[in-house]
Amino acid sequence: MSENRTTRRSILRAVGGLSAAAALGGGSVLATASAAHAAGDGFGLRIVDRNESDPRMWYYRFATDEIGWDPGVNVLLPDGYHTSGRAYPVLYLLHGGGTDQDFITFDRWGIRALTAGKPIIVVMPDGGHAGWYSNPVSSHVGPRNWESFHINQLLPWVEANFRTYAEYDGRAVCGFSMGGFGALKYAAKYYGHFASVSSHSGPASLRRDGGLVAHWANLSSAAVELGGGSVYGMPLWDEARVSADNPVERVESYRHKRVFLVAGTSPNPVNWFDTVNETQVLAGQREFRGLLGQAGIPHEWHEEPGGHVFRDYMFRRDLDGIIARLRRA
Question: May I ask which residue range the UniProt record assigns to the signal sequence (predicted)?
């Protein structure tokens, strides 16, 4: 069945959030710059730290008016990038929420080994501890406009500085937990930017069960991201923003895309954060899958034993599907 099973990791975690995804659009012209030295700064970004000594994992930290501190980004290059002269598709990989989650999370989880030999560039940006891949309604700690940073600045910067396919069929977005939500959100909201979207234990429904996920986004962001501010507004939501970000309200925006979903079926019974997180993720993804099915939109789904965790074997399967869907290097 084109619909199957898997998990996720962080809706309710010691006030940490979930995880989302990011991206932007472009034309069908191939970027010609060979490295970040070519354009350096630009698109509202100024490089304040960088390390390009590793043949595959390049690191950057940017100053930007969209974020009140200097967010980091890892760019994982494919084997042979420096000598091939070829252009590559790009996967924007979004981390989950929580005070232990950031742009090096996937590096700690072995992303280098998981992508070895794969003809794809993987961009892993900061998304905040509970940024929810959004421009918040309010912040008391300065700007935290993660959505604008990713879509309006980072994506065009990547395409100007690396050999990529700057087009719909050249980009995918994927994430875990909060990042899985972010991936679903970006793929729908910026329809022409990503040909493939994957959510590993990411919530797909903001309003179900009294709006539990939207409330959690507000509470977690207020606690660890926005100094008491909120993503969607408290006590009253900005309803238009919720609807614009809510995957189950944007079903038609997934048509003609590759859609890959994973959720866990057996959360840890002694960990209530895990239980609440993955229970809500699973319910939301089932709701979303039902709507996709009713609309006749193909999608692949997996429900896997276990709770809110990143499953490397599911990511391997997903990555092969991403590469098959995108324009070949």
Answer: 1-38
